[in-house]
Design brief:
mainly alpha; elongated
Length: 86
C-alpha cells in the first residue's frame, strides 16, 4: 500500500506544481487592463483585444489542465482506498 500511496501523493504533488508554475507564469505577464494589478485574475478586463482574448484563453486552459490533473490524482487516491477497504 505504501507504494501506491506514494505514487498517488506524487501525482498530486506534480499536478499542484504544474498549476503553480502556470499561475506564476501567467502572473508574471503584464496586466491586460490598465490600472489592474497583475494578480487580480478576476478583474473585469478592458475592452477585449487579441492579447486579452489570448490571456483569458490561457487562464481557462490552465484551469482545465489543473482540474484534470487533480481529478486524475483524486481518482488514484480513491482507487487505493477502495482496494484497502476490500
Amino acid at each position: 500500500m505504501a507504494d501506491a500511496t506514494t505514487a498517488a501523493r506524487d501525482r498530486i504533488d506534480r499536478a499542484l506544481a504544474l498549476l503553480e508554475r502556470k499561475v506564476l507564469d501567467l502572473k508574471a505577464r503584464p496586466a491586460f487592463a490598465p490600472g489592474v494589478a497583475d494578480d487580480d485574475l478576476f478583474a473585469i478586463p478592458a475592452p477585449a483585444g487579441p492579447d486579452e482574448h489570448r490571456r483569458i484563453a490561457e487562464l481557462e486552459a490552465a484551469g482545465r489542465d489543473a482540474s484534470a490533473a487533480l481529478a486524475a490524482a483524486a481518482m488514484a487516491v480513491r482507487d487505493i482506498l477502495a482496494r484497502d477497504d476490500a
